[in-house]
Design a protein that fits this description.
This protein has about 220 residues and is α/β, with parallel strands linked by helices. The protein has helices spanning about 25-30, 70-75, 90-100, 135-145, 170-180, 185-190; strands at about 10-15, 45-50, 55-60, 80-85, 115-120, 160, 195, 210. Helices cover about 30% and strands about 20% of the residues.
Length: about 220
């Protein structure tokens, strides 16, 4: 039996963004490699735990609706990394980041890594794109500079355009966070030893999300 100390998360990641930008779909694609289209909304927050090499990584998926902003600030506490997501085809979702979500980052750790993610890249065409790639890149660099992480501290910019439907860049988002925040002597060895887990039980079994509201399943958007 593993000791209680082994069950404690070594890294806390929180994901922020407006409702329906696809935050839970992003996490589900990464943890389970699947995409399920479901338009229900997260209530409170959903929690997942993943083992990466010797480390336990907690991923918190927060509710995007304005009425849950107070709860989202609570879940940001102690976060060493944050994914800030918007829908590339919905300019209003970027506006919501500035109006409600970016200020929640003040509750995270002082040197919290901020990764900006544009979602639903599979829907993007010249006609449907509403947020330019350069806007997301600039936002990512600005937010990290506020946390004391200058541009020259990154090997690549902390910005990705992703698709939970096709899997485009989804793994790159999380691998970037893990390799930036967790020290590993051999990241390739750690990558091969990844095990998906659920709850706080670190035994090898399929990963699933746990919601604060146990009466509801976690959403996919």
């Amino acid at each position: 039996m593993q000791s209680p100390t082994k069950r404690k998360a070594d890294l806390k990641i929180v994901i922020l963004g407006d409702a329906s930008v696809g935050k839970t779909s992003l996490i589900q694609r990464y943890l389970e490699g699947i995409f399920t289209q479901d338009h229900s909304s997260t209530i409170g927050a959903c929690f997942s735990l993943k083992q990466w090499g010797p480390y336990n990584v907690a991923i918190w998926d927060t509710a995007g609706e304005e009425r849950f902003s107070g709860l989202s600030s609570f879940y940001c506490r102690g976060a060493s990394a944050a994914i800030v997501a918007y829908d590339i085809t919905q300019g209003e979702s970027l506006k919501a980041l500035y109006e409600r979500h970016l200020q929640l980052l003040e509750y995270a750790e002082p040197k919290c890594l901020i990764v900006v993610v544009g979602t639903k890249a599979d829907l993007v065409t010249n006609r449907t794109r509403q947020v330019a790639r350069t806007v997301g890149e600039t936002l990512a660099l600005e937010q990290n500079e506020k946390k004391g992480r200058p541009r020259n501290s990154f090997s690549v910019d902390p910005f990705f355009e992703t698709s939970a439907k096709t899997g485009e860049n989804v793994e790159k988002v999380f691998e970037f966070i893990l390799q930036t925040c967790l020290p590993l002597d051999d990241s390739e060895t750690a990558r091969k030893s990844i095990r998906k887990t659920s709850g706080v039980d670190l035994e090898q079994r399929p990963s699933k999300h746990l919601c604060e509201d146990s009466s509801r399943k976690c959403c996919q958007h």
